[in-house]
Design goal:
Distance between the termini: 35 Å
CATH superfamily: Vaccinia Virus protein VP39
CATH topology: Rossmann fold
CATH architecture: 3-Layer(aba) Sandwich
Strand content: 15-25%
Order of helices and strands: HHHEHEHEEHEHHEHEHHHE
Number of domains: 1
Number of helices: 12
Structural class: alpha/beta
Radius of gyration: 18 Å
C-alpha cells in the first residue's frame, strides 16, 4: 500500500467506527434511506449478483441480501471485511482495492462503488476504479458510483454550529480544490462537484449517467433541528424534499453525497 492508502486504512481501523455511522445523525439517516430507495429502484429483480465495492462492514450489503440478492463485498480495510463476514447474515467479503478488483469480467449483474471515490485524490485513479466497476458488470447491468459533495464539510459545520474562522478558510479553498484538509478531522479524501463526477463517469465509459443528490437540499435543516421539538417533523420533510429533488441538477450539489447511476453499455 502507498502512504495515503495506509493512512486511510489506519483511520478506519483505529479512529473511526464506520459500522454505526448510518444511524448516528440525521444526515446519515437520510443517506441510508435514500441510498436504499435508489438501489431498490435500480437493481434487477432478486436474485441478482451484486458486487459491493468499498462496502465497509456491510450496511447496504445486508439489506440487499435480505432482499434476496447474492452480494459479494470488497473493501480495503481488513477490519471492515471481518465485520462483514461476522455479522448476521454473514457476507461473502474479501479485502481488495477498487482500482484492481479481484473479479472476472462481466461476473456481476450490478456493481456498487459506494465509497472508494471518497478517498482517491487523483482523477486517473477515480476513472480507473469506475472502469473496473464497468469491467466486472455484465453488459446492460447497472452501476452506482458515490461521491462526497464538494461543499458538504462547510455546510455540515454551519448546520452543527461548528463554523469558525478555520472553516471559513476551508470553505474558500474548496471552491477551487477538492482535496480534504485532514487537520480538520476527516481522513484523506476528495470532494466532487456534480459536473466533475459526471465527466469522470463518462470518461470511464459509463453509459446513461444520471446524478442524484442523496440527502437533498434540506439535510442541514434536519441537522440543525435534531435536538429541538420539531426534529422528526423536519426530518420527514427533508426526506420528502430529497425524493422530490433527487435528480434535479440545479440542487444536487447541495447534498452531502452524490450518486452517479448508469449502465455498462450493451
Amino acid at each position: 500500500m502507498d502512504q495515503v492508502t495506509n493512512e486511510i486504512v489506519s483511520y478506519y481501523e483505529h479512529r473511526y467506527e464506520e459500522a454505526t455511522r448510518l444511524q448516528r445523525r440525521p444526515q446519515s439517516r437520510l443517506e441510508r434511506i435514500r441510498t436504499l430507495e435508489l438501489l431498490r429502484e435500480l437493481l434487477p429483480p432478486a436474485p441478482a449478483r451484486v458486487l459491493d465495492v468499498g462496502g465497509g462492514p456491510g450496511a447496504y450489503a445486508r439489506e440487499l441480501i435480505t432482499d434476496g440478492h447474492h452480494v459479494r463485498l470488497i473493501d480495503i480495510v481488513p477490519s471492515h471485511v471481518e465485520q462483514a463476514r461476522a455479522g448476521v447474515p454473514p457476507i461473502d467479503a474479501v479485502v481488495g482495492d477498487a482500482r484492481e478488483l479481484p473479479e472476472p469480467d462481466a461476473a456481476h449483474d450490478a456493481t456498487l462503488l459506494l465509497g472508494p471515490l471518497y478517498h482517491l485524490h487523483e482523477r486517473a485513479d477515480r476513472v480507473r476504479a469506475i472502469r473496473e466497476a464497468i469491467r466486472v458488470t455484465r453488459p446492460g447491468g447497472p452501476i452506482v458510483v458515490a461521491a462526497i459533495g464538494r461543499f458538504a464539510g462547510p455546510i455540515d459545520f454551519v448546520a452543527t454550529a461548528r463554523f469558525d474562522d478555520r472553516t471559513v478558510a476551508e470553505a474558500r479553498r474548496l471552491v477551487t480544490d477538492g482535496v480534504n484538509d485532514t487537520s480538520i478531522g476527516f481522513t484523506q479524501a476528495y470532494f466532487h462537484r456534480v459536473s466533475e463526477l459526471r465527466d469522470e463517469c463518462r470518461e470511464a465509459g459509463l453509459a446513461g449517467v444520471v446524478i442524484h443528490g442523496v440527502e437533498g437540499p434540506a439535510w442541514p435543516a434536519a441537522e440543525a433541528a435534531q435536538s429541538g421539538p420539531d426534529a422528526e417533523r423536519i426530518f420527514d420533510a427533508a426526506l420528502e424534499l430529497a425524493r422530490v429533488y433527487s435528480a434535479e441538477p440545479d440542487v444536487a450539489g447541495v447534498s452531502a453525497h452524490l450518486l452517479a447511476i448508469g449502465t455498462r453499455a450493451a
